[in-house]
Amino acid sequence: xxxxxxxxxxxxxxxxxxxxxxxxxxxxxxxxxxxxxxxxxxxxxxxxxxxxxxxxxxxxxxxxxxxxxxxxxxxxxxxxxxxxxxxxxxxxxxxxxxxxxxxxxxxxxxxxxxxxxxxxxxxxxxxxxxxxxxxxxxxxxxxxxxxxxxxxxxxxxxxxxxxxxxxxxxxxxxxxxxxxxxxxxxxxxxxxxxxxxxxxxxxxxxxxxxxxxxxxxxxxxxxxxxxxxxxxxxxxxxxxxxxxxxxxxxxxxxxxxxx
Length: 259
Prior knowledge:
mainly alpha, 73% helix
């Protein structure tokens, strides 16, 4: 007799529950639906953020305005520069504003491959992934990016500083989005631990390699070659990895060999 025994506890029910069967075309169709919904959400958020994009960029440029001489401003080199800048500012803002809905779409795409017990984690997953993503962007704005600005302007203090809005925003958006994604590390480790791909013991064993990978990632995200700035990026990532180890130990799927 097939099916799940209603008398079984959740621990055993998870191992015997039949997952929905989907063909490759079903997965592709589901992916298409989620991508379409995500694009629509970003577009709606973009239209809302477009009106506020000048005010948003005024806030985004505060880290460099605080260190530039009082009469200096960011420059642009072509007539369409400010217009294109505000489009990019609205798009970056829209990604952060729509992030809860985007992460919901990610959850809905993964949901068919999860057991019933794991599907109950939808709200914590969406809430915490959103919080970590926003926290990464805020860390980039308040801590990491100002350090990058100070370092680069310090290097060029003997020269006339003409910083363009394109170069400034390009560097900032890379750091904010990069750190936003990096701060999702604990949630990624939580998900992998829940489905049994990794466990806390394996994560601790691979800590040295993780630190190496973190510094490589920090070198890619950081637009400066100095070790001090890279450390500012790497230290939070190491702490997030350790947090992920704790999360995996608490919420990870138990294996028979661990009993």
